[in-house]
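Re: Re: token formats

Sure, here are both.
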Amino acid sequence: MISHYDVIIIGAGAAGLMCAMTAGQRGRKVLVIERANKIGKKILMSGGGRCNFTNLNIEANHYISHNPHFCKSALSQYTQWNFIKLVEDHGIAYHEKEMEGGEPGQLFCNDSAKQIVEMLSSECDKAKVKIITKCEIKNVSQDNNNLFQLICNNKKYSSESLVISSGGLSIPTLGGSDIGYRIAKQFGLNSYELRASLVPLIFTDCLKTLCSDLSGLSIIATVSTANKSFTGNLLFTHRGLSGPSILQLSNYWQIGESIDIDLSPNIDLAKYLNEFKLQSPKSALRTSLSKILPKQLVSQLEFLYWHELKDTKFADIRNKRLDGIASQLHRWTIKPAGSEGYRTAEVTLGGIDTDGISSKTMQAKTQRALFFIGEVLDVTGHLGGYNFQWAWSSGFVAGKAV
């Protein structure tokens, strides 16, 4: 016995649920298949449980893709203002989070990310969308009548349109898998290399000990690769570095590459230290640095880089040496051993080549009625609500076309 639908969507995440409710509102008979035990699991854990559901400043330059123009059509068809209205229509209170040194315009639920999932679930219910959880896709094919055939939990389903909203490889415990990439390959679409992104960086040398000893400490810093720079909170962890600035940089950092950290982006340290020397010549270097940097951090850096000055008075330190220390603090060059990987990555960088996808509908150009939306595509947003907006926008345009 085969259950037939107009549209089958693989994946009940942000993009899949948006697509389902949009298609259902058009009168389409829609089935959503989810391998996890509940819908919207990534939504529920996002934003510290409050879901950074969009950003006030949605522009294409906040997205990474081999085709930087691809995202523009979907983002213009369904904007952040459209989603904000949906949130407001459901009476969900939200706020713009103030991020010191970070991306402005980030919108979060006042209460809980559960409200966003409940909103999407409610819209799907109203549109008579059927959702099946704990369902592992075993096979996808297409018959002689161009109907898609799926086998899931020993049951057979068919549909005129098939939408792949399976996400990427990030956080596999929430349902991430490679099925979307496998289906793309099966139907002749190319994909770019995948890697974990928006992810903490780790160390294996003496810096691991430093980071571990400072675990939980957060400062405002500017972090840079050769071509990209971000300012915001930097968090020391037991294994390395995290925080918004590092997560942003991980989109651009390559394995084997060093990163530069400005530990005091708002103060000219050379000027500061030399003035402090004049005012307090009998003070220790750590005394002055501890007034603008956390004392624990100053102690760790002193141990690693200028231990010989530990008991030296300012008056006995040459200005050239102070300038060198200031320069090092403004450009602390370190080399991560790697990242935390998909286990903690918020997104998967890379994915299905958008050259094979219509930017207006998300339909595969060489395979009628096959659609790809959300994270599975080679479109990755910066931290700050951009990836959710891509999910809403790409899901909406596909929902209008299926």
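Second one below.
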Amino acid sequence: MKITELTRSGRKDIVFCVARTADGALCAGTSEGKVLGVDPGGARADAVFSGAPHTSYVTGLARARHRLISGSYDRHLIWWDGSRSTQLFRKPAHEKWIRKVCASPDGTTVASVADDMVARIWDAETGALRAELKGHAPETPHHYASMLFTCAFDPSGDLLATADKVGRIIVWNVAKGEVVQTMDSPGMYTWDPTQRRHSIGGIRSLAFSPDGKTLVAGGIGTIGNIDHLAGNARIEVFEWRSGQSVAVVETGQVKGLVNQLAFAAGGGWLLGAGGDNKGLHLLVNCATWKLEFEETCAFHVHDFLLDPGGSQYTAVGHQGICLNGIS
């Protein structure tokens, strides 16, 4: 298998997140605080969603039925009517930067995670707060502030996985607000005690397999130069019910973070993308958990959407939007 660039449009901003409306239109959240309708080929101009924008980076965007929910470093969530590209309402949601927003498969529930180390569960229609999930430590082992980077629902929507800077994963029962399982991926955390006295890394992406039995986490391995993300891209595979790690996949040629992961519909292969100062994408055979493809790409990828058929995906990131083919 391989990945081939089909179309690309350059941009002056950074695109941090991407989603589709119920009618299939492509939408993105940007470094300028905007939610936009965008075209990966660059043939048409952006369509700005109407209403007051966020006041900082838009780092999370999720579709829940006919609505879009965006999250930002400004600590607010905004609900949008996706079909009309209009703002419905906004809510103060977290005490620190929001890192990720995701919706349950049935579109009834939304989760957000932030650097206050709390996952919050929201009613996707009304915005009512349903639950607060607190279990991630606020500090790293070296007594610096931690970060809660990512979250993902399982296929049933009953479970939510969250993951942080030091590699701790928690699987939650959403309805009960209870911890079901905890796992650790310490290989995704690097501490530099000498030159920078600084830690870097963390789990940046999570995905459940289509059958719900496997949970994969993406990030970066041991980093030799923390100023340049000079570490192999890393994926760890868990049989989450037992908490057992069953495989680790690391790149040998490309470097950087794995910022997004997605399984093909049948679960036969896994797509990952991210980067360092350059972009990367990779494909993993899920029968063997072997890396089948790794290559740099046009820009650092922050997010992507894999088409249901698995033959294309749209990547967004530093100064670009790109449509790629998988064959």
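Residues 3-326 form a domain with the Methylamine Dehydrogenase; Chain H fold (CATH 2.130.10.10). The mean pLDDT is 95.
- S.
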